[in-house]
Amino acid sequence: MALLHRATLRPTKLDLLAAWLPDQQWFTGPVGASGTLTGAEVVSRGAYRFDDPAGEVGIETMLVGTADGPVHQVPLTYRAAPLDGAEDWLVGTTEHSVLGPRWVYDGCGDPIYVTALAHAILTGAGQAEQYFEVDGRREVREPTVTVVVDGVGVAEVPAIGAVRRVVDEDRTVLDTEAVELVVVRRPGTGSDGLAGAVLAGSWDGQPTTVPLAYATLR
What we know:
Layout: E1 2-4, E2 9-10, H1 13-20, E3 43-50, E4 58-65, E5 72-79, E6 90-96, E7 100-106, H2 111-122, E8 130-134, E9 137-141, E10 145-150, E11 163-168, E12 171-176, E13 179-184, E14 197-203, E15 206-217
């Protein structure tokens, strides 16, 4: 389960993504004359979460785009301190009104996200249930993305090991010692019929289920 906080962030997630997205080679959409976007121009279509068993890292995948552009999938991790060696994957920093400073990373460069994605697909667990703590009890938040898993489930995921290689193009390929993962950056824009177990989803504006990520055991 993923614990949420009723909090404000400065800058907001959409503000961070507005500055970061235009520099990604898989981003497609209109940008201003300066080659940038504003937070108001980036629209959230939905999001889903995984759980970090250690409870240290927030893991959220956002589906975003501009009003007239395609939807882009951006896995994010939220950390209380910088992640060593992940400078190239840093989206930005923000101030969380409950948790304090947070370092926000593209999850494809964060081993916690990679492990969580592999577990979600290979075990069939899918997304984590989201909830708030209200007066000592849990208040469940309804997801904005419906996630399903199709493929062979395993009782126990092997140790993922280090990420040996990342190819960040139209699809992002994560090559680890035990599994190859593929993150679809623009879901729903074409055929993504790759081999392996698949994590798929639907959301408001995307009524049919489309692939979001794939996993193949080695």
